[in-house]
Design goal:
Elements lengths: L6 E2 L1 H5 L18 E3 L9 E5 L1 H6 L10 H7 L11 E3 L2 E4 L2 E5 L5 E8 L5 E7 L14 E2 H17 L5 E14 L8 E12 L5 H9 L3 H15 L8 H25 L1 E2 L21 E2 L24 H16 L8 H25 L10 H14 L4 H12 L10 H4 L8 H18 L6 H9 L9 H12 L4 H9 L35
Antiparallel strand pairs: 1-7, 2-4, 3-10, 5-6, 7-8, 8-11, 9-11, 10-11, 12-13
Helix pairs in contact: 4-15, 5-6, 5-8, 7-8, 7-9, 8-9, 10-13, 11-14, 15-16
The structure holds adenosine monophosphate and magnesium ion.
Magnesium ion (MG) binds next to loops.
């Protein structure tokens, strides 16, 4: 039998917890976590797991063939040394302070010691009620679990900081959800995802004690965060806290610049869904940009306000950093300067990171003096003017850069990115821009072949398009996990051509334009 991993409990050892272990919904004061056992499910079954992540964790693949492993990953039993708990945090939801939220359906099992000695938390999502479940059932449905499982791993392979997903288990229990909040609740298959991250700490973990005036608890948590995850920033103290806030601002800015560059829309950027480590966290009604539309949001709950629409993400990141800064104010004795500095850090880092990411997509070593800023902006304006697939467009550019001369017509690969017929003037503007860009790119020190390679490494061919995820979900509901498995594997190499999988690199088909799950997702999950 393969050996089982060892578990640590830094959070439980170092931070104050709730003496109660029952699941009655309650306000928990003076504590950052509550012990809770996962609630067993009827029939745990492993549907999929990430082999590369298992390897990283030192978990033998043979372990996943053992039904006992599915029982652990679905919450029916524990490995020795696991000591499960739910975290206590608050958050601003859609711009408003929402008070205590907490892990209502996520349960940390323990911190696994990896072969390299580092620790990562294993967390089950959908493992039953906790003290923080409020009116919720603590469960998750299969469709949202497939989406979280696949996207976590896909983001990792795209190079985007993210929580990971080790496994996807069916529970055998039904979960009732009113998917569109329209009075039509339906029984759906339940599932549990095992998530993995160095830490699941969110901005909201800090906001909650701050909102309650519990400065001692806030300080304890901040000291813990600094010493455990940001040791290089210096010891606890005002200087260290300011450095921490700056670093979180920087990571958040870089993360969101990365999202913008690949067309990822998180959908619910509430402060309880922003990671202190700068990871993408809490995959809910997220979506991928098909046509380059800055106003697009996948989240039906946000359809009116569009607070979390694609083009708003950078500004929301700044707003959230401000909320984190406000929460830390008592640690600065009310001095606002570190908060202003962090917000400025966010702004500058975002501008720099977004410029670098988009320049890389165009194969350019950014040079403002050469007019690269304008060239970039013209590209985005042109993309936004007509429904054009973002992923296909950028991927096509590596084929244009290697042409012997600037294109005289719109190359077929670019034309293929249009969703509809476009006016001739728009085609002409596209050709004119491509010619300017071709000339600029060919001034790069790198030769065209090398440029094309570098561009392909910045412009993924395969992303988890909403309609692809939905097709995999529909098949899984019929008992066929083949599409989930195929996506999992293809998305491990998103920048490779993999021509045998061209059908997974197509623009959104017409049937998916307005179909639920493909263009509109609710928070009900
Ligand atoms: P989210 O928008 O998914 O980040 O969730 C916001 C809050 O609602 C978090 O505190 C979640 O733990 C909680 N929550 C969401 N769904 C459920 C559920 N089915 N049962 C209990 N709590 C939930
Ligand atoms: Mg959340």
């Amino acid at each position: 039998m393969p050996s089982l991993p060892r578990f640590d409990h830094r959070c439980l050892d170092a931070l104050p917890g709730d003496p109660r272990t029952d699941t009655a919904s309650r306000q928990v004061h003076g504590a950052l976590w509550s012990r809770v056992q996962p609630t067993p499910v009827a029939a745990p079954r492993l549907l999929a797991f990430s082999r590369p992540l298992a390897r990283e964790l030192g978990l033998d693949a043979a372990l996943f063939a053992d039904p006992a492993t599915a029982e652990v990953l679905a919450g029916n039993r524990l490995w020795p040394g696991m000591d499960p708990y739910a975290a206590n945090y608050g958050g601003h939801q859609f711009g408003h302070w929402a008070g205590q939220l907490g892990d209502g359906r996520a349960i940390v099992l323990g911190e696994l010691r990896r072969p390299d000695g580092t620790l990562v938390e294993l967390q089950l999502k959908g493992a039953g009620p906790t003290a923080y479940s409020r009116a919720g059932d603590g469960r998750a449905v299969l469709r949202s679990s497939i989406r979280e499982f696949l996207c976590s791993e896909a983001m990792h392979w795209l190079g985007v900081p993210t929580t990971r997903a080790l496994s996807l288990c069916a529970t055998g229990d039904a979960v009732v959800r009113d998917m569109f909040y329209d009075g039509n609740p339906q029984a759906e298959p339940g599932a549990v995802v095992c998530r993995v991250a160095a830490s699941f700490l969110r901005f909201g973990n800090f906001e909650l004690p701050a909102s309650r005036g519990d400065v001692a608890l806030l300080r304890q948590l901040t000291d813990f965060t600094l010493t455990q995850f940001f040791a290089d920033l210096g010891p606890p103290g005002k200087t260290g806290y300011a450095a921490l806030l700056q670093e979180v601002a920087r990571r958040t800015a870089r993360l969101i610049a990365h999202w913008q560059a690949i067309g990822f829309v998180h959908g619910v950027m509430n402060t309880d869904n922003l990671s202190m480590l700068g990871l993408t966290i809490d995959y809910g009604p997220y979506g991928w940009i098909d046509d380059f539309d800055l106003g697009w949001t996948p989240n039906t709950t946000d359809a009116q306000m569009r607070r979390y629409a694609f083009g708003n993400q950078p500004g929301i990141g700044r707003w959230n950093v401000e909320r984190l800064g406000e929460a830390l104010l008592p640690l600065f004795d009310g001095d606002e300067a570190p908060v202003h500095a962090a917000v400025e850090q966010y702004r500058a880092t975002y501008a720099e990171a977004a410029t670098q990411r988009f320049a890389a997509k165009l194969g350019l070593t950014f040079d403002a003096a050469r007019g690269d800023g304008a060239l970039l902006q013209q590209c985005l304006d042109w993309l936004a003017a007509q429904e054009t697939d973002m992923t296909l467009f950028f991927r096509a550019l590596s084929r244009v850069v290697v042409l012997d001369a600037p294109p005289a017509t719109l190359p077929a690969a670019v034309r293929a990115a249009f969703y509809r017929a476009v006016p001739e003037a728009h085609v002409a503007a596209g050709i004119a821009w491509l010619r300017r860009w071709w000339q600029r790119a060919r001034q790069e020190a790198r030769g065209p072949a090398e440029l094309a390679r570098a561009m392909d490494a910045a412009n993924p061919k395969f992303v988890l398009r909403n309609w692809l995820a939905q097709e995999a979900i529909d098949a899984a509901h019929g008992g066929d996990l083949g599409k989930v498995q195929r996506l999992l594997e293809v998305l491990e190499r998103p920048f490779d051509d993999q021509p045998q999988h061209d059908d997974l690199a197509q623009k959104r088909p017409d049937w998916a334009r307005d179909k639920p799950g493909c263009s509109a997702l609710s928070c009900s999950s």
